[in-house]
Amino acid sequence: GAGVSQSPSNKVTEKGKDVELRCDPISGHTALYWYRQSLGQGLEFLIYFQGNSAPDKSGLPSDRFSAERTGGSVSTLTIQRTQQEDSAVYLCASSLQGAPNYGYTFGSGTRLTVV
Amino acid sequence: ILNVEQSPQSLHVQEGDSTNFTCSFPSSNFYALHWYRWETAKSPEALFVMTLNGDEKKKGRISATLNTKEGYSYLYIKGSQPEDSATYLCGNYGGSQGNLIFGKGTKLSVKP
After folding, report:
1. H or E segment and range at residue A7
2. How far is CA A60 from the centre of its chain?
3. CA distance A77 to A92
4. Per-residue pLDDT at B96
5. pLDDT tens string A60-105
6. Which residues, other chains included, contact B110 with Cβ-Cβ below 8 Å and sequence gap of 6+?
7. What are the respective helix, strand and coil percentages of chain B, to the nearest 5?
8. Which chain B residue's Cα is nearest to A102?
9. Measuring CA to CA, which residue among A63, A59, A78, A79 is closest to residue A15?
10. Which of A47, A104, A105, A111 best probes binding to B when mutated, by most B CB atoms within 10 angstroms?
11. B74-112 pLDDT tens trace
């Protein structure tokens, strides 16, 4: 696609429910990144994929968070048993090769509110 | 410095003022330093990717410099305009990690 697409743009969910966030990166971008920004905080790294593999899952806040990427394209971030502290803007970005000298293209984010 | 730090946290300037802000990052195992502009209700947009000590990059009225030995980068905006109002993020691509670690950003507000 022309840009990084994220859905839904907004999600309000009840505490304890599971949610799934989707990211569709730029076609041909092999690297894909998930970040989140909680209120008043900076961008927090969650996980990144090189192709379908996630070399570093250490940024996931708890075992309620999981992510996968299939076909080297679309990625889903799943949060199980959501808690209020999960409320944040979740941003996805992709990069041509995942090398340090390639800039990121960000999606417009999913605003998650847990009530 | 273990993390990426940006200062000031926020900045209010008048239209036409020139301004600058700082990004500090670990100087060891340096690979690249990125700057992004994040306008409200939009996606962060890449401004610069800098990899070499002494790099200077320019895009219109915005420029950036890089000192990898001492671990800092400056972003300059000449003749600020209201449309420059945004949060400016820097991200460090260092060490063995395969991703950018971002600072908390500098929020710039330019008054007409």
Report:
1. strand A5-7
2. 10
3. 10
4. 59
5. 999 999 999 988 899 999 999 999 999 999 999 999 988 888 999 9
6. B13, B14, B15, B17, B80, B81, B82, B83, B84, B85
7. 5, 55, 40
8. B49
9. A79
10. A104
11. 999 999 999 999 999 999 986 556 789 999 999 999 999
